[in-house]
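Appendix B, record 7
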Amino acid sequence: MRKLLVIALSSTLLVTALPANAAIKAGSSCPSVGAKKISGDKEFTCIKSGSKSVWNKGKIVVTAKKANKDAIPTVTSTPASSGTAITYKFSKITFDSAALKFGGNLSLKFNLVTNDPEPKAPYCILDMVINPFEATLSDGTTSNGNWSCSAPIPDMPLETNPSGNYTVQLLAVSRSSGQIIEERKEVVILKSATSSPTKQVSDKPISPGAFCTPAGATGKSSKGVDYTCKTSDTDSRNRWRQ
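Structure tokens (predicted):
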């Protein structure tokens, strides 16, 4: 009798020593019908099977995992440009070629389109002859309009030693990021004599239309008419011309 009692106590101690979170197996006995318990990645429910209460096959439980901040993609954006580049576009340029000469007149017309939020009047220049001066708006707006320039051309260039070639230019001035930006457009080149246009070649009467030298020299015909030694639009050779 004592031996049987020792065995019974040993069995009791063994059951008691089982961990509370021991893995559940489907079909094993459970405490009461309807009871639920999670084991591993499944949730088991105690059901009635015949005369016994057993754990069913269980169903997989999806548990929320702690978000990993390192796994969250970082979205970066490139900031938009602080502003579009300012442009000035000159077009439809016309000029009076007959008047474009020393002692003549600079007469110029053109169209100007710009995206400058604060457009300024463009300038006209005859390099080393006429300093920059503002064009006049004929029609349209300062952002998209037609302009004109008109100014008398001196008899002589500003430089001491004339080079003979002087460029007519259009100039637009804008300000971007604190910097002044100039945009120039060459229109045409004014060609002139490389020596003094008042030099007298000879006291003798000249022959109109005859070849002469140097360019820019002056003389009188037998009838007392003034002539200048120069080229023409159709002839690059120096002749006595009015």
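Remarks on this record: The mean pLDDT is 78. The CA atoms of residues 41 and 60 lie 6 Å apart.
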